[in-house]
Request: fold
Amino acid sequence: MTDINSMPEAAQYRRPPEVVMKLARMGSFHQTRLSFMRTLLRRLKKEQWLFKRSLWEIDDDGFGRAVYTVTGPRRSYSLVAFSHDLPDHMRSDRVIATAWDASFTLFDGVPTTADLDRLEQNVPKQEAGRITDSELCLSRANRSVRLWKHVIENLAAGRQPDRALVESVGYLVRTTAVYGSGKFGAADRLTICNRAELSGPFQAEMLSVWLTRAFSIDLVESIARFIGGDKATTIDPDLRRRIGVGNATGLGMAPFLINHPALINNWMVAREEAIARVRSLSEASDEEVKDFKRHLALARFNVAQWHSEHSIQINKLAHLDADLKMMTSYVETESLVDNHPWDRFYRWSEQHLSLEGQEQLVSLMLEPYGALVDDLSQCMDADELQSFFIDGSMSIGQTLDIIQNHCQWAISVDYQQKVNRARFWYISAEKLEPRVGERFEEAGAEYEQPLCIGYFIHQMYQALRDWDPEKTIAEFLLVHPEHRHTTRRVQTLLTHPYSEIRDNVIAADMLPIDLLRCKLSFFGATKFDPRSDRWVRICMYQDAPYPHEMLAIAP
Amino acid sequence: MKDKYTLAEIEGYLRKAAQAVGLDWGIAEEAGKSARWLAAFGLPGPELMLAQLQQLEGKDYHNFIPDCRAGQWRAKSACLCPIITGAALADRATAMLEGGVIKLARVAHPLLLAATVGQAAHYHQTVFTTKWAGVSVHCFENGLSVEGNREDLLITEVDSATCRQGQASISLQIPSTLAYAVDTQIWAEIDRLAFRTYAPATAESRAGAGAGMIDND
Reply:
């Protein structure tokens, strides 16, 4: 097992949680080498997995079912895809939609015909259907109508689609939810957590989306072939790479980062340790500098193609564009060879770049150093049960010490001010999805979910100060069960200092998209395009290889 | 008729149901975990937890606070609640590690106590034994074994019970991750309670949470 501390000289370069765990910074994260999509593809390639489109029962209009199977050293996994005829007026990206252009499940193994028939009765219904222990994920996708039609019409006529349009949209289909781990009957997380290939976070979900991308290409080419006959062509491999899978994500994803403190800590620590390892290097080789410059140029290309219609992101992109220009000037004028080049560069960025730019730089800095940092991806899962347990023997005094040392961000807030408690998180009865409400304007605050950890810590701190510091937290909790949840969180901070977002998630100016961006960057998403302060469109796997390009075809 | 539910669903629904009857969030989380822990061994955690939650509905928490300093723990209520007592027990697990035996007066659904103790055993990587009537439940870091009369596992109330550190046993049962089947009507009741934690839809809750209703772009 990889040791997170195997490079002790890096410790002094690790950014503290007070710097990292801020919403504005988390909302500026970019994908890195440790992002879950990249971890998955590295493993599949290294272990020489096999790929096969094992079933294609799609009719001439593009409707029917298909199966894509990948096989590794120990097991096979299959994406089972169903393509449906969806009228335009029913096409919605909302999680509360009830019909989609396509629906999917990731099957544990290779499905039999009986499995497929069972799945066909359930997967297209998504939440209203039921899957079983044999399935790992449930998902659905809608077409990008403007690109879908354009690509099919052109391929059918024997032409390539318009490159600019392909690049500006970035995907043929957009997933609107990818459910895993025990949802709607799917196998429990424990089923897969001891399998090397799926033990890392969201590996099953990332595999499902990667195969969905292959399916989307096969589907448009198949329909174009039916329409155009012999005249039809396929997408040029180079242009095909520019097509990823879109995703629309709303508030549903936001509470995850708060509800999994030990896991989030491990994601953050792995990422921060990777950055620290690179910053701790006393010198860089010519080859490493060259590699960095190549990725910097790619980042500039990426930002030129990254469009957003939302004022917040438009502003951030303008800063990022300027930041990338400054980084380019920096590498042209400053030596990156010796004298701790990456640490110098990072410290310079803190003085000169926006948060978008600083976080872009740390992502780019990791690129030349796979051998140094990729092993950290093995430290990104968590035994959440271990940190769930409360140490009842801890004294009130020790508990107060943790709060004073780790939670100034919580106890220094004046919650008497309405702006500091303006929001509340709840789950809507209508679709069982998380929502954010305005506490002083809307009904429903009595349904508040326990996500405002800072406010809870503030309240517990006030209560604890009236107690004898020699007494145990067990005695306190017996009469104050309302602080039990918070005690768990506070104690977790001792061993998991990056477990809490050190910001106020119920403040009037809190932006839910910051939470979404952080999580999605860990997935490996790009092209974040917020459509409001609470939902975002992204692209996944753009420029990544396709299964048939990277893996040998199974017999 | 029975329907299968995943362990994740059992944990989530029972946690919400516990919150719906008035338990605070931290204890409700433990109630969800206990129901899940038992179901993983094929034991009726969801069913017993529901029965216990129904007993707690509308009652004052303070009547169930066990006096942990007494030679035998008891509360103002005639019968100890295994969820609230279980939390207090877990918080005092170090007393058992030091050789202490915790004695409980009349307690409801003692199997739910064993579930809490099981989680303490996982954390402390040891064996804790809960004993009542004619049965002992030994909880290991990652498993359990039942000794004695298995019918006593499902007792609804018992006059006394004890918890202590135990000895390793060879007849260890390890948890399964397979779905657990629950009677349709019992699950409907769990679902009804869980649903009470969701906010009724309002115009505001529908607006702005995600994409527009039609996305043909």
